[in-house]
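Our preliminary data section would be incomplete without showing what the modeling component actually yields. Below, a chain of 181 amino acids is followed by its predicted structure, encoded as tokens that our downstream tools consume directly.
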Amino acid sequence: MSSKMNKSIFLIGFMGTGKSYWSKIWAEKYGLAHYDLDSIIENAFAMTIEEIFEKEGEDKFRQIETLNLKKFENKKGFFLACGGGTPCYFDNLDWMKKSGTVIYLKATPEYLLNRVMDEKEKRPLLKKVNTAELLYFIEKKLGERERFYDEAHYILDAQQLTEKSLHFIFEENGSALIKAS
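Predicted structure:
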């Protein structure tokens, strides 16, 4: 099996950065499996993430999320689009870093606002936020999470992504746009 096929890549970042979209594109391009953590949870519970939040609460959801994340322990050769909060709870980020390559898709609050504005009702953390306060909420929540996101192996600008953005991971001597420390 080639080293390309052994890659385990976790995409992290705030909601609206394109984790689900790009993980699917890149998985196809590099011949790897594609998974979306939120979709896995929704399929397992036959409920949307929003419904799980409402019925079980965020604490229970985060436990469910962690259990499903760690089901990838023995898998290789995949892209996993993680939920926006996944790296911020329990030991999830450290576990992902030990289990594969973690890539943070970074974006400005203004970019994120434009991306999530029309999907507000489908996103549990945004559902109850007044539209006028949405940018402030994104800035605040991003500020809380960025210390986790910044620990990723690589940081890519979500606004500049292309099909070729990950070439550095699949080349022997390549380097990232930004190498996280």
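Helices lie at 19-30, 37-45, 49-56, 58-69, 92-99, 109-116, 134-149. The first strand starts at residue 8 and ends at 12. Preliminary results of this kind motivate Aim 1 of the renewal.
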